């Protein structure tokens, strides 16, 4: 009976489980263990657990950068025995990589002996090599003994290890990281320390700083092997979204060789490319006929750097051979950026601002905890010193009390009860040596107490004032920058592929059109023949539903288009990148530039800026700003803010000016104001501008043009009526006025669409909201006085209206 009961109890402990559910849960547990415990770096210190444990173990062994080396096997054994119970080969391989200057942009371990090479040679066995912390590796561990980070039990709970390192350097960005987990991977490129610190400081100054401005400080990755990054599009994508593809090319030069031959000399290769493998690929390509004209391949590399010499046939084209090398060997590779890191123990894809913010927040936490620790220690020491100073002031009573006590415990108790010392102070008095009674020692105690009180006040200011805390973070970052920063090794150039495409494609004039819903496309200008005034035009852009064409510009395939948004930002986009579909609306502009949610393009301008010194920005509410044209330099698809806007206001017109031009401002209700641009002082990007023209209720600015002698101003209304009027009919006024009447408007004309300066031999491209386009000569439009209504320029269908007009300059002089 007892036996049966025991068997029954055992049977009740058997839990039936579905095999499918058990495998699923077990696999998920395994996957998360790999993700969190092995493969992915922490976003704060940029280290995987094994890397963190190696650095901490080296510190515990006393292997600082200014101490003697110790055997690598000692480091591996310490790490494996205390913190990382995995294979010694994996630990050693990790330590080796942290010491390789061709793998790490800033090595964290200082190795002595054979630690491998860029040719793929393996390192010597760990019993032959030696290692210690690099000075920068010590910065990763700085202040770790001042309660700056949390601690976790090691694998057998016999010791504690840091959950994260304090890391005075933004290691995840400066050294990058690679790792393959289960179902996910990280692949982050290294960056230049100086540039990353500058970006961190910019984030400290303004947490809302835009990625476009950060890229002016931190333009892109900086690989330890140098090379050239082709194009900025992949960098913009990686910084904005956390993913992107960066094309990296090695550096090669064409040199003269013996007997009139040419040679291609490769001096830098792309990051993570094995030099021996590259040479083998080149030799194999020559043997298979994929690389023409190479007669000899020599590796002349030494300690000074890489030098691969490819000798060519006398009649070979070295530029053709170079193009073949780029396309058929690893001399040009693609680095796929995946900014995946652990945030609070969870894998998260991070953009540039997220990466910087997490590191800054980590440093704030470290500095705050360190300051709290130092404040606590300083207050404890100050308390002791206050007791000693007090005791020295009544030293005769103290000595008499101690001498009359039977033992130290009684003396301590009497000091507390009779003389009001704390227990800590009483113990310090009992431990005090007689030499402290000298005048010099008393003076030193007072000096130390005064210094501590100053430190305590400083610590409290740091903890109470966030700006003081950020100041400490900034100061320490700048110290790291000054101590370890170096020059950029990788060059970033505009895409060579784009340049090649421009070389192959003839520069042709195009029409760029965009709908109100943001769909953009380009069309050949030659598709639109010149028509007489009053024509209906041809179909220029398909629209869908109630989507209408809103913007149009005539430019060329080789130029850049500046796109200005309703948030006061500007983006640069190559015209060649725009789609040229045979039908349809094209592509949404958001697929080319990084627009924020709800942001839209309100106007765009051709990049031609001959004689231009300023960008003149005019808003629909009549505010204007003159911005130095240099502020547009280096703008990419990431964008840059150039104007602060009031709520509900948007950019109406953008013009490039020469510094002493006169402008004609026009409103939808037909008012014009002629004004000198010198009335508007130059302002910076963040300024909101000044009042340019006074508007009546319901009116808005629709036109702004530079007055150039020999031209007339063209006005066109929504319902297709227009005229040309001499500039002489408009006298110059000061800014802020209402101006004078420009055109008589009524129900048959509708409001004005805008105003444009035109010459006799110019042509116009008029686009209607339904996508009709008419190209006509400016001379076809009548010249009338400013009080006239105008005549029909475009015949419109019922419900259609003029959307925009662009001027095709036929004269040599470009528009301002």
TrEMBL record:
UniProt keywords, alphabetically: ATP-binding, Coiled coil, Cytoplasm, DNA-binding, Isomerase, Nucleotide-binding, Topoisomerase
Reactions catalysed: ATP-dependent breakage, passage and rejoining of double-stranded DNA
Broad class of where this protein is predominantly found: cytoplasm
Gene Ontology cellular component terms for the protein in this record: chromosome; cytoplasm; DNA topoisomerase type II (double strand cut, ATP-hydrolyzing) complex
Residue ranges annotated for the Topo IIA-type catalytic domain, each copy included: 40-504
Other facts noted in the record for this chain: Few gyrases are as efficient as E.coli at forming negative supercoils. Not all organisms have 2 type II topoisomerases; in organisms with a single type II topoisomerase this enzyme also has to decatenate newly replicated chromosomes.
Protein name: DNA gyrase subunit A
Species annotation: Thermanaerovibrio velox DSM 12556
The encoding gene: gyrA
């Amino acid at each position: 009976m007892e036996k049966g009961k025991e068997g029954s109890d055992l049977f009740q402990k058997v839990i039936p489980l579905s095999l499918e559910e058990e495998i699923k849960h077990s696999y998920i547990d395994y996957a998360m263990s790999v993700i969190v415990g092995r493969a992915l770096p922490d976003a704060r210190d940029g280290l995987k657990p094994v890397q963190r444990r190696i650095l901490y173990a080296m510190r515990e062994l006393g292997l600082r950068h200014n101490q003697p080396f110790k055997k690598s096997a000692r480091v591996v054994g310490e790490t494996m025995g205390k913190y990382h119970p995995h294979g010694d080969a994996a630990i050693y391989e990790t330590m080796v990589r942290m010491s390789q200057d061709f793998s790490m942009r800033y090595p964290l371990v200082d190795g002595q002996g054979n630690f491998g090479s860029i040719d793929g040679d393996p390192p010597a066995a760990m019993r032959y090599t030696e290692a210690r912390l690099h000075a920068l590796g010590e910065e990763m561990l700085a202040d770790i003994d001042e309660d700056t980070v949390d601690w976790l039990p090691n694998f057998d709970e016999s010791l504690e290890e840091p959950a994260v390192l304090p890391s005075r350097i933004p290691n995840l960005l400066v050294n990058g990281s690679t790792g393959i987990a289960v179902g996910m991977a990280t692949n982050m490129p290294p960056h230049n320390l100086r540039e990353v610190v500058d970006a961190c400081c910019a984030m400290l100054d303004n947490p809302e700083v835009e990625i476009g401005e950060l890229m002016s400080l931190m333009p892109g990755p900086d690989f330890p092997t140098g090379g050239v990054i082709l194009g900025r599009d992949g960098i913009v994508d990686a910084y904005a979204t956390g993913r992107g593809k960066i094309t990296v090319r090695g550096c090669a030069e064409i040199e003269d060789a013996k007997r009139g031959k040419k040679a291609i000399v490769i001096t830098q290769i792309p990051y993570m490319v094995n030099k021996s493998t590259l040479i083998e690929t080149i030799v194999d390509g020559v043997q298979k006929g994929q690389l023409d004209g190479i007669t000899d391949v020599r590796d002349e590399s030494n300690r000074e750097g890489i030098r691969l010499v490819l000798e060519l046939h006398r009649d070979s084209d070295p530029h053709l051979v170079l193009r073949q090398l780029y396309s058929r060997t690893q001399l040009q590779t693609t680095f796929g950026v995946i900014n995946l890191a652990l945030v609070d123990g969870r894998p998260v894809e991070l953009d540039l601002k997220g990466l910087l913010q997490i590191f800054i927040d980590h440093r704030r936490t470290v500095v705050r905890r360190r300051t709290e620790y130092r404040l606590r220690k300083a207050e404890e020491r100050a308390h002791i010193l206050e007791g000693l100073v007090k005791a020295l002031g009544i030293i005769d009573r103290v000595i008499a009390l101690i001498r009359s006590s039977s033992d130290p415990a009684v003396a301590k108790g009497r000091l507390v009860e009779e003389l009001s010392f704390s227990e800590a102070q009483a113990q310090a008095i009992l431990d005090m040596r007689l030499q402290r009674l000298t005048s010099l020692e008393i003076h030193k105690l007072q000096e130390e107490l005064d210094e501590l009180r100053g430190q305590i006040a400083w610590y409290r200011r740091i903890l109470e004032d966030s700006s003081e805390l950020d100041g400490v973070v900034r100061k320490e970052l700048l110290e790291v920058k000054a101590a370890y920063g170096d020059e950029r090794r990788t060059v970033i150039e505009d895409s060579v592929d784009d340049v090649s495409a421009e070389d192959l494609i003839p520069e042709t004039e195009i029409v760029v059109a965009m709908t109100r819903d943001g769909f953009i496309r380009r069309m050949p200008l030659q598709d639109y023949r010149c028509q007489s005034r009053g024509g209906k035009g041809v179909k220029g852009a398909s629209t869908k539903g109630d989507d209408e064409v809103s913007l149009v510009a005539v430019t060329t395939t080789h130029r850049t288009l500046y796109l200005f948004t309703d948030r006061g930002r500007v983006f640069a986009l190559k015209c060649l990148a725009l789609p040229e579909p045979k039908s349809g609306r094209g592509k949404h502009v958001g697929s080319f530039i990084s627009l924020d949610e709800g942001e839209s393009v309100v106007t765009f301008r051709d990049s031609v800026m001959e004689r231009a010194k300023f960008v003149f920005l005019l808003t629909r509410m009549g505010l204007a700003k003159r911005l130095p044209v240099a502020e547009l330099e280096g703008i990419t698809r990431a964008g840059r803010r150039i104007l602060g806007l009031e709520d509900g206001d948007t950019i109406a017109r953008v013009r490039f000016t020469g510094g002493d031009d006169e402008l004609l401002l026009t409103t939808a209700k037909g008012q014009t104001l002629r004004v000198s641009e010198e009335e508007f002082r130059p302002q910076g990007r963040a300024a909101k501008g000044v009042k340019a023209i006074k508007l009546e209720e319901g009116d808005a600015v629709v036109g702004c043009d530079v007055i150039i002698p020999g031209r007339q101003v063209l006005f066109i209304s929504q319902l297709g009526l227009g005229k040309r009027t001499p500039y002489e009919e408009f006298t110059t006024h000061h800014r802020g006025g209402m101006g004078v009447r420009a055109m008589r408007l009524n129900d048959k004309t509708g409001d004005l669409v805008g105003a444009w300066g035109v010459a006799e031999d110019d042509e116009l491209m008029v686009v209607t909201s339904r996508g009709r386009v008419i190209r006509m000569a400016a001379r076809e439009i009548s010249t009338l006085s400013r009080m006239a209504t105008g005549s029909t320029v475009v015949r419109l269908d019922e419900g259609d209206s003029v959307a925009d007009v662009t001027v095709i300059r036929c004269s040599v002089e470009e528009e301002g």
